[in-house]
Amino acid sequence: MNILVTGGLGFIGSHTVIELVKNAHEVIIVDSLVNSKIEVLDRLHEITGVKPTFYQIDVTDEAKVEEIFLTHKIDGVIHFAGLKAVGESVSKPIAYYYNNLVSTMVLSKMCLKHGIGKFVFSSSATVYGDQPSPLKEEMALQKTTNPYGETKAISERILTDVSQANDGFAVSLLRYFNPVGAHESGLIGEDPNGIPNNLMPFVTKVAKGKLTRLSVFGNDYETADGTGVRDYIHVMDLAEGHVKAIENLSKGVNVYNLGTGTGVSVLELVNAFMKVNNVDVPYEIVGRRPGDIAICFADPEKAEQELGWKATRSVEDMVRDAWKFEVDNS
Ligand code: NAD
Ligand code: UDP
Q1: Catalytic position from the list 148, 176, 221, 232
Q2: Among 4, 12, 232, which is best to mutate for testing ligand 1, by the most ligand atoms less than 8 A from CB?
Q3: Is residue 64, in this structure, part of any structural domain at all?
Q4: Is residue 241 part of a domain?
Q5: What mean pLDDT do residues 122-137 have?
Q6: Among the four residues 43, 103, 257, 321, which has the most C-beta atoms within 10 Å?
């Protein structure tokens, strides 16, 4: 297939491009570079042997998006492009709603106009809100605690309505849990601007000595060691999930959790990082972070049954690959 990948130079998009190329798909990347670097394109060339077609455009710009639809024969769209910093979304709600919702509307509109019937969307486990894990796709969604989360819930709703109104428009809504790690080459990985908000990139920076110590947000949750529990998933497992999702897309709206099904606490992740990489990660326990929930992990059964996809990489793989990327690129 010829697949348009929006946000294809970002963390998850770039790893997915590798898997798409590996599975003989042609990739057209569009990215505004608002949160990624052009060097990633050369890294993708180095890893895959193929230099994908690339356009630096903002996917909220309908005229520019349409030019791409007119220039290329496109069979499907994987829409990663979006702003994703939860805290920033609270202080800049309009930027988040505008970017994340207009991009989804422009792309789905262009798909309808140009007869493209396959659309895969990056959603998030955040749409479940605070419900008991394991989280299942059929659970009712809850209001999220920030504008970022709302953009995911509203985008899901928009795409569902568009699909229901247009028989030939099939959608896959992929709810990611906590993507971490990097490609095993160490050539691409997670490279956030500024001080990371997420646990794994923060840990790698502390281990490297770029940040003094990790703040562990709370050890008084109802979990085995009191720290928050999440379902960390290796980004290459996630990338493989996207290939399965677009190759096996059924008619209508399809919702899948992409997670491992296993909850891991903050301290378990930090201890695994130190042990596997033989490096120290100084940390201190501080108060809870507002908006955090205690436990969040997937029931990943549906994706296995319907897509034949299952995460195979371990926590050890995740911490090793995350560290390799940090060491090789700093
Ligand atoms: P990322 O920031 O690394 O990648 C997103 C890419 O989209 C960046 O390269 C950015 O430059 C680009 N982009 C943003 N707005 C754009 C626009 N209007 N036009 C063109 N390009 C634009 O983020 P990521 O971690 O790879 O996340 C990819 C998607 O998955 C996002 O939609 C994110 O919300 C979603 N998601 C991420 C996580 C996570 O923890 N990383 C979890 C759940 C869902
Ligand atoms: N966390 C932490 N210190 C940090 C960043 C995160 O203790 O500097 C914890 C956070 O409270 C949560 C887990 O690590 O329990 C994962 O947080 P992250 O922001 O990576 O993902 P989230 O699940 O919140 O989207």
Answers
A1: 148
A2: 12
A3: yes
A4: yes
A5: 97
A6: 257
The domain that contains 123 carries what CATH number? 3.40.50.720
Across the range 187-209, mean pLDDT stands at 93
User: Does the residue 221 lie in any domain?
Assistant: no
Q: 290: cis peptide before it, omega within 30°?
A: no
Q: Is 195 exposed, middle or buried (0-12, 13-18, 19+ CB in 10 A)?
A: exposed
Of 271, 294, 132, the C-alpha closest to 218 is 294
User: What's the mean pLDDT when you consider all of the chain?
Assistant: 97
Model confidence at 57: pLDDT above 90 = yes
Give dist(CA 196, CA 204) in Å, integer. 10
For residue 109, the one-letter residue type is K
Q: For residue 49, what are the domain limits?
A: 2-180+232-258
8 A C-beta contact, residue 108 and residue 155: no
Q: Give the pTM.
A: 0.98
Residues 55-81, mean pLDDT to the nearest whole number: 98
| Residues 103, 79: Cα–Cα separation, whole Å | 9
Name the band, by pLDDT with cuts 50, 70 and 90, for residue 143: confident
Query: What's the CA-to-centroid distance between 199 and ligand 2, angstroms?
Result: 5
237, 181 in Cβ contact below 8 A?
Answer: no
Q: What is the DSSP track for 30-64?
A: E---TTS-THHHHHHHHHHS---EEE---TT-HHH
Burial (0-12, 13-18, 19+ Cβ within 10 Å), 229: buried
Q: Is 148 a catalytic residue?
A: yes
The CA distance from 104 to 151, in Å, is 10
With bands split at pLDDT 50, 70 and 90, how would you rate the model's confidence at 194? Answer: confident
Fill in the DSSP letter of residue 302.
H
What's the pLDDT band for 291 if we cut at 50, 70, 90?
confident
Q: Please compute the mean of the pLDDT values over residues 49-60 and round it to a whole number.
A: 97
Residue 274 inside a domain? The answer is no
CA of 228 to the centre of ligand 2 (A): 7
Whether the per-residue pLDDT at 123 is higher than 90: the answer is yes
